[in-house]
Write a structure and sequence with these properties.
This protein is of the alpha+beta class and 188 residues long. It folds into 2 domains: 89 residues, Alpha-Beta Complex (Conserved hypothetical protein from pyrococcus furiosus pfu- 392566-001, ParB domain); 71 residues, no CATH class. It has 7 helices and 4 strands, in the order βαββαβααααα. The protein has a 4-stranded mixed beta sheet, with helices on both faces. Strand 2 and strand 3 form a beta hairpin. The N terminus and C terminus are likely disordered.
Length: 188
């Protein structure tokens, strides 16, 4: 399984219309409005220094890495952004690339890792051992991420809970930083 080839489209950086870019892999990342605002300020001042990473799913280009840059470009009403295409044959390769591209610099949060591992096991049919090998981790790491995903409740994807997870709580009573040592209390 080769994710990025060293010739052809993977090396090309080109402009792509914002309207054409899909965000189907956005569900594996937590939104961070403060970081997106900071990115918009950076793009406004310095321009786009790093291209977004996309892959083709059918004929649709889907963003794999660069969701903050994409949100910032949309906030600035840019018509296009720079993109680099990732050559990926299947969903599991794209998810592994999403994980690998975020191992350097700002890492995925444990909750994001849990969503990604859960998708590899449930949606893509990988065993825990196969998921571990694909991500370059031990099977116990995969097992812990799956346990974390089972402890999450869907309401954690609310904006209030995302802020609490990042430490930017607005102070409402239901926004407490989640822990994975026990199931979260039901949120009103």
């Amino acid at each position: 399984m080769r994710v990025v080839r060293h010739d052809g489209p993977a090396l090309e950086i080109r402009a792509a219309s914002l309207a054409d870019l899909g965000e189907r892999y956005r569900r594996y990342r937590l939104a961070d409005p403060h970081a997106e605002q900071a990115m918009a300020q950076s793009l406004g001042r310095w321009g786009q220094l790093t291209p977004l990473v996309i892959c083709l799913r059918g004929e649709q280009p889907e963003v794999v890495d660069g969701f903050k840059r994409l949100a910032a470009a949309r906030a600035l009403a840019w018509p296009t952004v720079l993109v680099r295409r990732l050559e990926a044959d299947d969903e599991r390769t794209v998810k592994a690339a999403l994980y690998s591209l975020n191992r350097v610099g700002q890492h995925l949060h444990e909750l994001e890792e849990a969503w990604l591992v859960q998708a590899l096991v449930r949606e893509d049919g990988l065993s825990q051992v196969e998921a571990a090998a694909l991500l370059g981790r031990h099977k116990s790491w995969v097992c812990r991420r799956l346990a974390s995903a089972r402890l999450c409740v869907p309401t954690w994807k609310s904006a209030c809970c995302r802020r609490a997870w990042r430490g930017n709580c607005c102070g409402c009573p239901r926004a407490t930083r989640p822990t994975f040592s026990r199931p979260p209390a039901a949120m009103p």
